[in-house]
Structure formats: C-alpha cells, structure tokens
C-alpha cells in the first residue's frame, strides 16, 4: 500500500468495563429461556441451523495419500497483472524467477499439497476450458477500471459447468490516489463480487508492483489462503477422468512429415497428472479444441514434482530444497524450455567450457554434459548387453542389439519371467525406441555433431541427473529421485524417464552395466524371498494331492484358450498368448475359433441351465456324500478343517506370472508360521482383539451409537468403500497389470500417446492455450438428439432463433449445432417456437454428442474476441437424449366451398389429390366463423375436392381450414469448435448465418415477389337483403314479423305548420340573441389576449434558455480540461512503468 | 472429430445374447460373423431372429443388419427405450431365453419396461419363469433394483406347445449399487415350487414328497408349494416341473430345477432337482452358477468403486462373458482364491472396478 493513502487510526473503546465483564466467563442464567415454549423454539432453531449446514455427502474420488496437484487458474482481462501474480507466486514457492511463464507450472507447496498454476488468456475458448478444470480460480480485477465483460462471462461459464472455489484479487489499487476513493472502490467492487459469488466471498487486495512483482507480504498472505483452501468435489469432474497437459510432444517419424510436407496426421504424446476418476485404456478421450481421439497407450511415469517422501516427512518443517521443486516444461525454468518438438536452451552472452566458478543454468549444464559424452548412443548400445534374467551373468548375443520390439511394454500382464525380467525387456525396448527416434530429430540448436546424435528426445526430457559439478539444486533433485526409486520397486525405475536418460546419455558403457548391477542387487535382495520357499513348495506339491489352483486372470484374459479348455485344465500355449486386445478397428479377426471346438459347437445351444447329468447326480445317492455338506446349513456345525499341514497352492510358481494377492498373503502366512517373536506378538494381539470384540458385543448397545444418523451413516459408507477401493488392488505389484484391472488412478503422472492427431495441432501449437485431455463416458461418444432446457441469458441482447447455429459448451466439448426451440403445449405435444421466450425457460433440441442428463451447459452465438457485447447467449441443462424427436409446428390448410347443400358442402383447393384426402378422412375442419365440420370422402372430380359435413350450412364466402401439426426435426449438423487447430486461436468461425454471409459477400437479399407487401384491393361486399318468405311471415308472431315500412314522402305536421310569435316573445328572443353575441365577443377578446401573453412568455423563456446554455458550455469546457490533464498524467505514469494497458496479448 | 463408436467383431453363434446385451449397454456396434457358417442349416435360427426383434422393440434407433445368408449380423445399438412391449416367442426356445437379456437391459431404459411375453414358460435349457421370479429378481435387489420389479405368471405353458404368458415389470434406475458380497453364510431355508399343468394335480404333491425325503435331514424350514394351473391358464401341453432354491443367512441363493420328461416318474424328477440343488450348494459361493453372468455384468456397471463377489468357478459362459466384457467396457476382473488357506475350497473372489455406468437414457423433469 502506498504511503500517501491514509488509514483511519484505531479508536480505543470508551467502555473500559466491557473486557472485565467478559473475563468472568459465560453467564448461563443470562441466556436461559424465559419460558418452556421459548426454549422449545430455540432448540428447534438450533437443530434447523445444524441441518442447513449439512449437505449431500459426495464421494471424493481424489486419493488422499497422493493427490494430483490442485489447479489454480489465474483469470482476468489483459493488463490486469496475471503474469505478474503468477511470477510472484512461483517466486514465493520456488525462489525462481520465470521470464517467460507459459503453460502449467507445478510446484510443491506443502507436505500434502502441490499446486499447478495456469494463466488463462483472454480468449473465451481458453476461459471455457480452464473453467472446466480449475479447482481454484484467482479472479483478477483491475480496481482502477472496475469489472469487465470477460469477468462476468467467466463467472457465468463457471456457473454452467460447476463452480470451483474463487478468490477475487483486486489490483492496481495504487492508481487510485485518494484514500477515501480507494475505500469506496473496494466497497463497491466487493459488494458486486459478493452478489456474483456468495456473501462473504474472499476478495484480496494487491497494491503496487515492486521489482516486477507484487509485495512479498501480500503474496505470502495469498499463498496462505490458497494452502488452507478446501475443495468440495464437483459432480462432472468426479465422474470423468481428465488431465491438464503440461507437456506435448510430437512422435511422428520425421520422414513421414517430410514426405507429406508436414500435412500428415501426427502421433502425439501428452503428459500430465491424472485427475478425476480412473482413466482406462480403451475409452475415448476428448481434447477440447481438437476433437475425439483414441488413446494408443498410457504409461505411468515417475512423478516429476513429487511430494515430500517418508524421510523428509520426519522433519518438522519443509526444508528449503523441496520448496524449489518446480515442473513447468512449457516455461523456461533454469533456461530450458520444452517445445512440442524441440528443446530450447537459453545461453547468456559468453558461454565457454570449463568456466565452473560461474553458476550455470540447467540448460547450459545439459549442453556441457552432451559435449563431454565420449561416445555416441549407438556405440553405447552396441557395447551394452541384454540379459534375460537379472541374475544371469552372460548377456544375450544378438545380431542387432536394438531388436526388442517397442510395443512390448504395452503387453498386459507380464509373462512368467517375473517383474525383474520384464523390467529388463522394457529397458531394452526403450533403448530400441530411442534408436528409432534418434534419427528423426534434426536438431539445429546444438552445434556439435556428437551432440546431434545424443540429443534424442528421450534424453532431452530430463533436466536432472547431471554431473556432480552441477549446481546444488540439481544435486538435490538427484538425491530426491534416487530416494524415490529406493522406496518404490524396480519397475519404478524402468518407467522413470530420469533413469532412462541416465542410462544412455552420460556415460553409456559405464552406466548401463551399473544399472544392471542395480537390478542384480535388487534381485539378490529379492531372491531369498521366493527361492527359499521354492524347495519346500515343490516338496509340498509332491506330497499333497494335486492342487487345482489356476491363475484365472491369466487364463481368461491372456490366453487364447476356449472356455472349455480352461475349465478342463489345459495348459496355455505360450506361443498363442493374446495381447489382450479385443477391440478391432478394421475387419481383422482376433477371435478365431478352433475347428475342433467349432464342430462340437454345432449342437451347443446358448443355454443358461447346464443339462443335468445322471452320472454326476448319482453320487448324491450316497449317504456319506449327503452328510458331507451338512456344514453348509445352519443346523450343521462348522466346516471341517482343511488340516493343519497347509496344502500350498503356490507350488506351480511358474504358472503364477502375476504376483497377485494370493502370493503376497501366502508369504505373510509363511512368515507367521515360523515361530518368531513377531509372530507370537501378532498372535497375542489377535487374541486380545478377539477378547475385546467379545466384550464389546456383550456390553455395548449397538443402538446407543450417538452419531448414527443418516448423514454420518452415508459418510461412513463412503469412506468404507473408498478404503476398500484402495486396498483391493494394492496387492498387485506390477503397475501395468494393476492399471489394466483398475485403470490409471488420479494423481499419477502419465504419458498418453494419441495417434491421428490433426497436424495443425502441432503446427499451430501455442503453450498459452491450455491443452486438456478429458475422458469420455460410453454415452458421450455417441451422437443423438439431445433435448435441453434453455434460457436466454438476460444480458444477451438478441433473442435466439430456431434454426440459427449456436455454439454449445457441454461436457468437455464445444460444438456448433442447430437447435430447434419448443415449448410443451398442454402436455399433448411439443410445439416449435420460432424464437426463445423472454425471461422464461424453453426446450431446445439439437443433434450432437450425447451427454448425461442433468449436466449443465452454456451457449454462445460467436466466440470471436471482437464481439462487443456479452457473448454468453444462453444457459441450461440437459434433460434427455434420444434417437428421434417429436416436435411439431402448426400447419393450416385452407379451402373454399365448391358447392353447398344443406349441411354438406364440397370443398376444393385444400388438397391436390385424392390420396392426400384419404389420409385426412375424418379430420376436423372449421370455417372462420366457427362452424365445425368433418372431412368425409374425396370427390372423383375435380381432383383434390372432397365432401364434408358441417354442423350448419356454410356460405360460399366462407373460408374452410384444417388445423394440422407438422413434425420438424433438427438438422443433423454438428461442428466441433477446433480452436486449438487454428493459427489465430481467438477467431474461430463456424457456420455463419445467411445474413452474415451476405454482408460479408456484399450481396443483397433476394426478394420474393410474392412476399412483397402490396395494397390489398378488396371489392366492397354486397349483402343481399334478408327476405323472409311470405308464408313464413304469415305464421310468425307479431313481434318477430319484419316491420318494413316505406319512407314517408309527405311533410309532417310539424314541418309544415307556421309559427307566429307574440311581441313579448319576440323581445325576449332578441335580447337573448344580443347577450349571446356579447358573450361571444368577450370570449374572443380574452382568447386573443391570452395568446399574446403566451407568446411573450415563450420569448422570455427562450432568452433564459440561451443564457443557461452559454453557462453550461463554459462548465463543460472546464471539465474536459481537467479530464485531459488527468489522462495525460496517467499516460505519463504508464509509460514510466512500462505498462501498456489493453495492448497486450 | 470421429464420433463413430468403434466396432467390435466376434465370430460364431455362441454367446450371442450376452454380446448383444453388452453392445446395447456400451453403445458400441458389434459385428458377429460366421454364424453356423459350416452348418447344414446355416445362419441364424428363428429364436435368434425373434430375440433381435425383441431387442429392436425394446430400443429406439437400433440398426440391425443381417447378411443375405444370415451368417453375419451387424448391430448398431440405439438407446434403450422400454415402455409397454408385447412379444411372442417361437416354440423352439422358452421364455427364459428372451427374458434373460431383457432383465439385464430393463433397469437402464428410458421408461419402465412392461413386457408381456408369450411362449413356453419352462423347459430344460433356460431358467424357468419360477426361478426368474424367485431367484433372478432377488439378485437384482442386491444392486438396488427393487421397487416395482415384478414378474407375473399369467399362464403356464409347457413345451412343446407352449401357450404361457408372463408379464415382466421393471423399474428404471439411475445407477446400480456397488456389490460387496463375500459372505456366503449358511443355508437357512429351502423353498420350492412344484407345478403341474394339464396332468393329475397329485403329481406336484408326489414331487414334493420325494424332494422332502432328501432335504428333511438338513433343516426343518422347507416349504415346497404345489402350484397347479387350470383351464385356460394351463397352456396347451401337459407338463410338470420342480424348482427349488436354498437361501442362506446372508441372502445368497442357489437354485435348481428339473422338468418332466416322458416316461419318467415325478418322484425321479424331484430327486433329480433336489440332487442338482445339493450339487449347486456344494459348489458354494454367494451366487449360483446360473446367475454368475448377471451378477458380474452389474458389477461392471456399478459405480466407480470396487465391487467384490464370491462365487464358484466360472462356467464356460462366464469365462466368455468376462472376455467380452473387457472388449466392450475395458473392465477386467481380479479373480483370486476366496479362501487361500483352504485348498479344498474352489470358490473364487471376483473383484472389479466398476465403470460408473449411469443410465443416460433416463429423462429428467
């Protein structure tokens, strides 16, 4: 806060005794209710308040032990200070200054928390996407300017897609000089902020910028607020897996790109932390702005920005080195920036080798390391050896060392060799893949040819693992990673790109063997565990009867055996192991049935009940057999013990490729069986536990549980299920196998490989636009008619029209489609509306990708940034998805009578053929005057005429009409918004309106001659006089008889009489006439005078007005002069600080 | 944007029903070829065609293409619609064949299903309507599908002439509950239905007598009902059958049944059914072998939590189902021994991570 702003001084309270009173403590009597009724009311109120605090318990699928980083989005109009805030926050957490902060930046902020910062640019597409994934939004508002349209647009987008936590941040408060004005501004902005979000929403104030950053204390405060923020799961994110890509790479072979001149579809890998629910391979993903894509593979990588682990956990405080962890591949951390297909190393002016005393950045260090590499990768690979087992001393000799196929690491469950061997194969498969990639990179950044060989993509990924001479930061990173791999298993290392890089980059012929030794060590550490029992197990398997244990998972999912073979116990043919793929894209047949089974299958029916075979059932005639299942009934005693000698089922260790729970548990059991002090202690504990349970059962009242209300029950149920979810697959050690069963869990750092990505995604890649990978549910992959409830946004200026294209943001997707609006007409029909109603919801039906009912959306008419007004045109919710629609619009068919009988008439001009009439037989028709009727039958002549009956006689002049309903279907148009594929990402143009096209092309609207308004010439209608027949007149009563009389021709008496007046009468009349004349004259004169006066007054007023106007002009001049001066001052100030408002981005 | 749901291809006529069900639920198109292509009478059978017609009635927007020879079909599923449906089954298969897929689909329809289905109510191949009513529907209750779930047997119809009629009413649900059923418990009661149509009503009593002769030794809580349909409700052919089920303390159910065959005494039929039940009980588990697929399917469709169930060894059908389920939903099961200490125990523990299937067909408001 600037010094010139004055705060109110603290006022000491006058009442000195207040504090003393409080010290005495709570006076219970003072708050005791006066009456019983009051007490009851108070109690009820309290309970009600308690209830309002409760909310529906939601399952939080984000794991608690290793959650993904919290996404903190910084949103605001350009020039508000987003980048400054981002840099300040990164500086606060990592002590590093970023010069070019782009893309997501992940930092470790606490023992259990990491944050991913992302700056959202002003493009509405980015705002939509960021709004869908952000956990916390720092909404920045320029206090010197006030709220801007984008802020409100963003808040409305959030409203439609699930509201994350929002903290408002007011900046540029230093530009307001007057303290009172600052206070008033804050108050006004806060009031509006609260109405937009909720009463009491947090609003932060940031004063001026120091050294390109906000003041440290204020940033510290903000970071504290962020760190204590709690999140409630949002339903959409809790049912979809998603990922914010913090790194994008193009894996397409260079040759292919060259041949197609960069136009071929690309294979792209996306890196990021998984969020939401488990991501399964085989489901589709959607990248907003790109489209629906299939995942080729998902690979778990080592966490690039891990949480503090066990040994650092013991320490009380976060040490400084962990605070330094930052993962921001798209930004330039330490002078290195990862682009889509290159890595950029910023080097300061003078760069020489051997200059060790100068602190070097990460990038420089990498270049130096590359230069120091004595041999190329090819040499390294040729010298390295591949060993099948970690324990085997001699390597395999192969013609080509890189022969391992790279798709091996996709194979589901590992083969019999166990995890060590598989780790080995993965190792060399990766070497192979690097070889593949190596030739496709024409790096023009690093000059030396040696380096050219070595800067393969895989080696570039890793900023850590450098020589001991590296700066302290990197050393820490090394120790960190090593400790991590120590904690994890050997697989970890194989997946960890860090280690991979370590293997091939630095000192291959030294490092690869050492790496293998690592594995060997682990093997030897591992070996006693299973080898020790091996002999015993074989013995056991020989002595005990044949165990029927099968590895069902492997038999079912990893072999090609028919179900019958599996049940009969045939051993799997190792050559025929399926790679576990059932989904076939083309016409390939994976499920090839064997001939033998086919011929047998001819009699086989698809039956549920198995046929009863008398041989099998005959064993139940035996009394002993009948007795043997007595223990299954409540009347029977417990099951007979299986015997003390444990018949170990693990004898066939070879068959157990997958180290599943059974094995693990068995090992535990084995150790327990041994008479160790641990085992005895465990036994004792178990005994105690049993005793305690018994005691509890006897003395605890199960109903007495105080908090067993619905809410707590639900909560407990949820937590029980979550703990089961965690525990169930924990026993599967192999990560790939585990991922196959349960998918990739949120919190893991994964690499998703996606094939057939449009080349524009890579060509026009811009790190400032977020790349989101959203998982799709099976429903969302399909297209159909979606019915939604929609309301035009009250801030949108135009109404929405049926059959005008509209851009929807629904689920992950953004697409343009053509809706038809409708309203429910008396629950009978859906009636089409031409325009959306004002201030009211209506239905809209469109063709597009289906979404789960109840998901919210918002719509736009245009996504362009130059749209001046509010862009969100409507909001609503999905109601229904279907494959057909029932929307109708009214259609009136008109006809005219051809011939009229009594109540029957022939009608023409309504239809054109007898066939049409046949369809409408029995339909209700009506005249304009309201006479109802029915269509009877078509006439043979003229074509299209029909006979109809009416309830009364119609006239020839009557118009007959038939009210019908014509069903309309929305056009099958759906155009995904592919904004990420554009070079100019802010200006995506979809289908335009006809008017827009005409305006752009400069065309005139063609006029239909029939549509032109003309004066309607209507001949005057003549009505024949009503003639009542004489006969009828005669029988009518007098009152009803027409009284028709001819007009009188003779003068009446009153007309023809002469009037002679008396002299007095004459005098009186004359006097009256005179008085009237006088009066008339008086009025006329008065009127004249009045108008004269009015004229005078008008003149006076005019003079007055003129004088006033001159004064106002002077005043205006004065004001403008002041404003001009102010503007000039501001401009000067801006130039001074280098801030150019509204010119950025 | 390629929104074409990927196509899944199978060969052979076996396991047709479950594949169609999986396809409709997952929304992925399925192509099945080589349907009895080597047979003397190649192509789809009449009951399979009838099943496809039933599925078409149940859904909206489904496209079924059958090749000229009838040896290949392509099903592009629409949405499950539901509502009142009537279906006539051919006499080659019983109602159970058609009812089984419908039961799997009905909870996810747009409108509650009211299916009236006519044909043979009991035969040797498929579950009889009695077992559907007493065993299959309680299995759905494990997954929270209970209110309004009903099967009414209007008329019985024995093979070969049929003439039975049942009405199946199913509610719709938003999402099925996750199953955690690992405690088989002990058998606490035995129930059964002995029915006889167009034969001496005494037959059902004779069956009951015979079944009791075996079962009485175990528990006293045995009720075997004699259910005789007369007149127009008894269908067109004579026949009788005994369906029995055993329920455990934890609600696990096992069932068996046997139907009349010419030249076999009712007592023998009853003994056969009873012994089949005992064989089933010996296999153990929380779910009997006839309902494995149903339970596993609903476990796959459960919310995104781990569902567990203890069952006996999988049948051939179940094994193929597990494979197919992975092709359609990407879900594989973890299958381990339920009781690792006891090597005699053949029961397995099936656990999977549900796909979080939500009934998107349901209309709100």
From TrEMBL, chain A:
Gene Ontology annotations for the cellular component aspect, listed alphabetically: 90S preribosome; nucleoplasm; small-subunit processome
Extent of Basic and acidic residues compositional bias: 18-27, 37-48, 573-584, 591-609, 661-670, 1081-1120, 1127-1138
Reaction(s) the record says it catalyses: GTP + H2O = GDP + phosphate + H(+)
Composition bias type Basic residues, residue spans: 7-17
Region of interest (Disordered), ranges: 1-48, 395-529, 563-620, 634-681, 1081-1145
Acidic residues bias (residue ranges): 406-443, 504-525
Annotated GO biological process: endonucleolytic cleavage of tricistronic rRNA transcript (SSU-rRNA, 5.8S rRNA, LSU-rRNA); maturation of SSU-rRNA from tricistronic rRNA transcript (SSU-rRNA, 5.8S rRNA, LSU-rRNA)
Compositional bias of kind Polar residues: 395-405
Record InterPro entries: AARP2CN (IPR012948), Bms1/Tsr1 (IPR039761), Bms1_N (IPR037875), BMS1_TSR1_C (IPR007034), G_Bms1/Tsr1_dom (IPR030387), P-loop_NTPase (IPR027417)
GO molecular function, one term: GTP binding
CDD domains the record matches: BMS1 (cd01882)
Keywords: ATP-binding, GTP-binding, Hydrolase, Nucleotide-binding, Nucleus, Phosphoprotein, Ribosome biogenesis
Residue ranges constituting the Bms1-type G domain according to the UniProt record: 68-232
Similarity annotation: Belongs to the TRAFAC class translation factor GTPase superfamily. Bms1-like GTPase family. BMS1 subfamily.
Protein name according to UniProt: Bms1-type G domain-containing protein
Species: Amanita muscaria (strain Koide BX008)
UniProtKB/TrEMBL annotation, chain B:
tRNA-binding is among the record's keywords: no
GO process annotations (BP): endonucleolytic cleavage of tricistronic rRNA transcript (SSU-rRNA, 5.8S rRNA, LSU-rRNA)
GO MF term list: RNA endonuclease activity
GO cellular component annotations of the record: nucleolus
Domain RNA 3'-terminal phosphate cyclase insert, residue spans: 182-282
Subcellular location field: Nucleus, Nucleolus
Keywords in alphabetical order: Nucleus, Ribosome biogenesis
InterPro entries according to UniProt: RNA3'-term_phos_cycl_insert (IPR013791), RNA3'_phos_cyclase_dom (IPR023797), RNA3'_phos_cyclase_dom_sf (IPR037136), RNA3'_term_phos_cyc (IPR000228), RNA3'_term_phos_cyc_type_2 (IPR016443), RNA3'_term_phos_cycl-like_CS (IPR020719), RNA3'P_cycl/enolpyr_Trfase_a/b (IPR013792), RPTC_insert (IPR036553)
UniProt keyword Nucleus, yes or no: yes
Superkingdom, taxonomy of origin: Eukaryota
Domain RNA 3'-terminal phosphate cyclase, residue spans: 9-335
One Pfam short name: RTC_insert
Similarity comment: family membership: Belongs to the RNA 3'-terminal cyclase family. Type 2 subfamily.
NCBIfam families listed in its UniProt record: 18S_RNA_Rcl1p
Entry protein name: RNA 3'-terminal phosphate cyclase-like protein
Organism per entry: Amanita muscaria (strain Koide BX008)
């Amino acid at each position: 806060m600037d010094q010139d702003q004055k705060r109110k001084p603290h006022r000491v309270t006058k009442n000195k005794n207040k504090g003393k009173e409080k010290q005495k403590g709570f006076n219970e009597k003072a708050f005791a209710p006066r009456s019983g009724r009051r007490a009851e009311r108070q109690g009820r109120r309290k309970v009600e308040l308690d209830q309002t605090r409760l909310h529906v318990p939601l399952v939080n699928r984000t794991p608690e032990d290793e959650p993904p980083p919290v996404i903190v989005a910084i949103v605001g109009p350009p020039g508000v200070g987003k980048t400054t805030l981002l840099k300040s926050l990164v500086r606060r957490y990592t002590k590093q200054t970023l010069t070019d902060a782009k893309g997501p930046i992940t930092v470790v902020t606490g023992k259990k928390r990491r944050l991913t910062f992302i700056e959202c640019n002003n493009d509405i597409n980015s705002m939509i996407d960021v709004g869908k994934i952000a956990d916390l939004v720092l909404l920045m508002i320029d206090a010197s300017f006030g709220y801007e349209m984008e802020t409100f647009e963003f808040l409305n987008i959030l409203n439609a897609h699930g509201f994350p936590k929002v903290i408002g941040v007011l900046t540029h408060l230093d530009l307001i000089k007057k303290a009172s004005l600052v206070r008033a501004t804050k108050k006004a902005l806060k009031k509006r902020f609260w109405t937009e979000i909720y009463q009491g929403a947090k609003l932060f104030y940031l004063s001026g910028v120091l050294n390109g950053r906000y003041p440290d204390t204020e940033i510290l405060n903000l970071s504290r607020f962020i760190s204590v923020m709690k999140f409630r799961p949002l339903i959409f994110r809790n049912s979809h897996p998603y990922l914010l890509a913090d790194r994008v790479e193009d894996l397409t072979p260079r040759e292919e790109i060259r041949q197609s001149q960069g136009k071929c579809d690309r294979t792209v890998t996306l890196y990021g932390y998984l969020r939401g629910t488990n991501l399964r391979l085989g489901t589709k993903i959607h990248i907003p702005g790109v489209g629906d894509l299939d995942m080729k593979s998902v690979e778990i990588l080592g966490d690039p920005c891990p949480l503090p682990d066990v040994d650092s956990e013991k320490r009380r405080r976060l040490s400084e080195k962990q605070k330094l962890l930052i993962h921001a591949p798209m930004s330039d951390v330490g002078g290195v920036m990862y682009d889509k297909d290159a890595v950029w190393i910023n080097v300061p002016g003078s760069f020489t080798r051997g200059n060790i005393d100068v602190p070097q950045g990460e990038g420089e260090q990498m270049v130096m390391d590359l230069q120091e590499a004595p041999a190329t990768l090819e040499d390294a690979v040729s010298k390295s050896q591949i060993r099948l087992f970690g324990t085997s001393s001699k390597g395999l000799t192969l013609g080509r060392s890189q022969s391992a196929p790279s798709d091996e690491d996709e194979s589901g469950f590992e083969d019999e060799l166990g995890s060590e061997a598989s780790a080995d194969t993965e190792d060399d498969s990766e070497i192979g893949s690097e070889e593949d990639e190596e030739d496709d990179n024409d790096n023009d950044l690093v000059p030396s040819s040696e380096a050219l060989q070595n800067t393969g993509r895989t080696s570039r990924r890793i900023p850590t693992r450098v020589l001991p001479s590296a700066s302290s930061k990197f050393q820490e990173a090394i120790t960190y990673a090593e400790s991590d791999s120590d904690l994890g298993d050997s697989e970890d290392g194989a997946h960890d790109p860090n280690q991979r890089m370590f293997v091939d980059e630095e000192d291959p012929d030294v490092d690869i063997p050492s790496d293998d030794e690592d594995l060997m060590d682990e093997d030897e550490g591992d070996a006693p565990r299973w080898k020790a029992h091996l002999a015993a197990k074989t013995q056991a398997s020989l002595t005990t009867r044949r165990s029927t244990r099968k590895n069902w998972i492997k038999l079912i999912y990893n072999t090609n055996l028919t179900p019958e073979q599996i049940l009969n116990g045939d051993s799997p043919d190792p050559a025929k192991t399926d790679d576990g793929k059932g989904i076939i894209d083309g016409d390939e047949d994976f499920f090839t049935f064997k001939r033998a089974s086919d011929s047998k299958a001819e009699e086989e029916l698809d039956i549920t009940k198995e046929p009863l075979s008398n041989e099998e059932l005959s064993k139940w005639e035996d009394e002993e057999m009948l007795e043997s299942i007595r223990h299954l009934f409540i009347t029977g005693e417990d099951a007979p013990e299986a015997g003390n000698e444990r018949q170990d089922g693990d004898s066939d260790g070879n068959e157990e490729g997958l180290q599943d729970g059974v094995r693990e548990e068995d090992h535990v059991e084995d150790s327990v069986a041994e008479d160790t002090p641990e085992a005895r202690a465990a036994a004792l504990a178990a005994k105690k536990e049993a005793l305690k349970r018994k005691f509890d059962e006897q003395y605890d009242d199960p109903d007495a549980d105080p908090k067993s209300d619905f809410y707590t029950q639900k909560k407990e149920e949820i937590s029980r299920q979550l703990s089961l979810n965690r525990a169930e697959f924990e026993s599967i050690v192999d990560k790939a196998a585990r991922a196959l069963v349960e998918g990739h869990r949120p919190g893991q750092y994964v690499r998703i490989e996606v094939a057939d990505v449009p080349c524009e995604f890579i060509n026009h890649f811009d790190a400032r636009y977020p790349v989101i990978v959203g998982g799709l549910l099976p429903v969302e992959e399909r297209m159909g008619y979606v019915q939604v409830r929609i309301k035009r946004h009250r801030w949108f200026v135009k109404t929405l029209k049926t059959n005008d294209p509209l851009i929807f943001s629904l689920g992950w997707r953004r697409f343009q489609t053509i809706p038809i609006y409708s309203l429910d007409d008396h629950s009978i029909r859906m009636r089409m509306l031409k325009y959306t109603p004002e201030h009211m919801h209506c239905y809209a039906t469109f063709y597009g990708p289906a979404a789960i009912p109840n998901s919210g959306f918002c719509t736009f008419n245009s996504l362009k940034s130059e749209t001046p007004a509010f862009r969100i045109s409507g909001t609503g919710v999905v109601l229904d998805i279907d494959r057909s629609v029932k929307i109708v619009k009214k259609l009136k068919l008109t006809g005219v009578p051809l011939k009229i009988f009594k109540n029957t008439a022939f009608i023409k001009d309504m239809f054109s053929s007898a066939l049409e009439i046949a369809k409408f037989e029995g339909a209700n028709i009506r005249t304009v005057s309201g006479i109802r009727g029915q269509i009877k039958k078509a006439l043979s002549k003229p074509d299209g005429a029909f006979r109809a009956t009416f309830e009364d006689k119609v006239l020839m002049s009557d118009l007959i009409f038939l009210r019908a309903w014509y069903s309309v279907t929305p056009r099958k148009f759906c155009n995904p918004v592919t904004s990420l594929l554009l070079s100019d990402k802010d200006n995506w143009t979809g289908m335009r309106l006809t008017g827009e096209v005409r305006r752009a092309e400069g065309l005139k609207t063609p006029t239909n001659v029939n549509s032109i308004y003309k004066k309607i010439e209507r001949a005057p209608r003549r009505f024949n006089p009503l003639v009542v027949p004489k006969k009828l007149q005669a029988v009518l009563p007098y009152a009803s008889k027409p009284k028709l009389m001819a007009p009188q021709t003779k003068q009446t008496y009153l007309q023809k009489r002469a009037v002679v007046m008396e002299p007095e009468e004459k005098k009186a009349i004359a006097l009256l006439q005179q008085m009237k004349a006088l009066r008339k004259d008086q009025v006329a004169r008065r009127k004249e005078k009045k108008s004269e006066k009015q004229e005078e007054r008008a003149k006076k007023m005019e003079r007055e007005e003129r004088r006033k106007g001159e004064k106002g002009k002077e005043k205006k001049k004065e004001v403008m002069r002041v404003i001009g001066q102010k503007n000039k001052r501001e401009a000067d100030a801006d130039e001074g600080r280098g801030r150019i408002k509204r010119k950025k981005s | 944007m390629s929104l074409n749901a990927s196509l899944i291809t199978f060969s052979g006529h076996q396991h047709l029903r479950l594949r169609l069900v999986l396809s409709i639920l997952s929304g992925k198109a399925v192509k099945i070829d080589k349907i009895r292509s080597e047979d003397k009478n190649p192509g789809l059978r009449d009951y399979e065609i009838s099943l496809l017609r039933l599925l078409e009635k149940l859904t909206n927007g489904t496209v079924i293409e059958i090749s000229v020879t009838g040896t290949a079909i392509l099903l592009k599923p629409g949405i499950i619609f539901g509502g009142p449906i009537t279906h006539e089954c051919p006499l080659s298969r019983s109602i159970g064949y058609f009812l089984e897929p419908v039961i799997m689909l009905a909870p996810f329809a747009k409108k509650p299903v009211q299916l009236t289905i006519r044909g043979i109510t009991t035969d040797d191949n498929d579950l009889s309507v009695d077992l559907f009513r007493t065993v299959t529907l309680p299995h759905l209750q494990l997954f929270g599908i209970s209110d309004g779930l009903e099967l009414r047997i209007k008329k019985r119809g024995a093979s070969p002439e049929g003439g039975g009629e049942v009405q199946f009413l199913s509610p719709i649900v938003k999402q099925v509950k996750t199953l955690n059923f690992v405690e088989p418990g002990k058998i606490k009661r035995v129930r059964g239905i002995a029915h006889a149509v167009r034969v001496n009503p005494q037959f059902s009593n004779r069956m009951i007598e015979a079944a009791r002769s075996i079962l009485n030794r175990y528990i006293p809580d045995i009720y075997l009902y004699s259910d005789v349909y007369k007149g127009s409700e008894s269908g067109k052919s004579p026949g009788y059958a005994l369906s029995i089920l055993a329920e455990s303390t934890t609600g696990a159910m096992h069932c068996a049944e046997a139907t009349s065959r010419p030249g076999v005494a009712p007592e023998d039929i009853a003994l056969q059914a009873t012994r089949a039940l005992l064989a089933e009980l010996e296999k153990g588990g929380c779910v009997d072998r006839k309902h494995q697929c149903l339970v596993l399917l609903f476990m796959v469709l459960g919310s995104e939590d781990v569902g567990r169930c203890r069952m006996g060894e999988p049948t051939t059908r179940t094994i193929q189902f597990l494979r197919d389920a992975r092709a359609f939903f990407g879900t594989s099961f973890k299958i381990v021994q339920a009781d690792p200490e006891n090597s005699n125990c053949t029961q397995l523990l099936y656990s999977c991570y549900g796909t979080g299937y939500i009934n998107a067909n349901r209309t709100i408001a």
